Amino acid sequence: MVAFFEGIKYNFKIISDRASSNKYVWTIRAFCKKDKRYSGINNLNYILSELFDDYEKVEGTGRFEDSCGWVVNKNEAKRFTEIMASVLQDNRIAVVESGAFLVAVDVGMEGLLRRIGIAKPIEKFLSFFGITIPSKLVLWDEVETIHFPKMDIQLTKPYTKLKTLHPSDVADIIEDLDRSSKMAIFSSMDEERAADVLEEMEPDAQIEVIESMSVDKAADLLEKMPPDEAADLLDELQEEKAEELLGEMEHEASQEVRELMEYSDNLVGSIMTTDFIHFHPQQSVSDVIKELRRLKPETNTIYSIFILDRRERLLATVSLRDLIISQPEVHLRHIMHKSNNFVYDDDKAKRLPAIISKYNMLAVPVVDHEMKMLGTVVIDDVIDRLM
Questions:
Q1: Side-chain half-sphere of 73: how many Cα atoms within 13 Å?
Q2: In contact, 382 and 353? CB cutoff 8 Å
């Protein structure tokens, strides 16, 4: 069996030779993209050994006497190939006179496009415009393996370097781990980071994490999540467990989540977040900027600045662009735009994609039938619903 994988500087060939009726010896050869020939980096097998030390290593076997390989059972071959492909595709390898060395791990867009097999055509297309795809590398010195049965390879040192990755990437990593490993990594993160990662995980994995935590710890984590995400998670739990967690949360946060949980899944309110930034017409640009600096809001809560009256009814919106280019003393009433594009909390959620597409909106304000603003639906949540 032969498998090919594209790496950063090399293409790789993984070759298997039958060792017995149910075992194979796997070896690796590297094809240098620059000079179009196989390169003498056979000690790549050796530097990968730390990743595969659960498997028996054999030296000078198979088709290449100057290489080494691993003995893999037939029923483990597919998993071994998947792990090896991930390692080879994601790592930058440097070749010097003394041999080959793993230098860094590619965690950026270039690596993503390469893994799904479309890097070359996209790079070629962008080259016509003088654009290159940026790399995002984590130095190999900052990477360490976690040893699990049959080598589910992941990153840690000790888990702090996971902060280099986007929360959704960390979520993908954690989802592949066993329960104890999940909890070890979650325990190493601060609450803000842990909440961001938990938000990105699949429902089954979310439930496993929450049920593995103490009630007070899980409640603290839920409080850090956007209310709509916390509501979705609690909806997946048994009613008794959900009520226990809601009772442990701070009253205001708990009440927000309870209200969202009352909406039917097909209504706007079910994907609405109650986190939004609002001001009054008489406030100045300077006041708003100072307050934003103090609040340090999440990105998706400042797609638009909403202007409310004293009764919290939606009046208008102010774009970040208008806010930034205006003089500090200008009042919001002079730069705001009357808001005609909104939805009611009991509207059907299926209306949202058309509204967002037609008006190029990143966040849609949600009001009740008296125009009191209740929250927003951000484009991220609409996309998640569609997918």
A1: 5
A2: yes
| Cis upstream peptide for 158 (omega within 30°) | yes
Q: What is the H or E stretch that residue 367 is in? A: strand 363-367
Buried b or exposed e, range 80-92, using 16+ CB within 10 angstroms: bbebbbebbbbbb
Check if the beta carbon of residue 280 is closer than 8 Å to that of residue 254: no
Instruction: Please give the share of the chain, as a percent, with pLDDT higher than 90.
Output: 41
Look up residue 15 and give its two tokens. Answer: 């070759």
Supply the DSSP symbol for 20. S
CB-side neighbour CA atoms (13 Å) of 141:
0
Q: Is residue 381's pLDDT more than 70?
A: yes
Q: What is the pLDDT of residues 14-43, one digit of tens each?
A: 566 555 666 655 565 555 555 555 444 444
- Enumerate residues 6+ apart whose C-beta is below 8 A from 244: 215
Residue the block writes with tokens 């590398």: 137
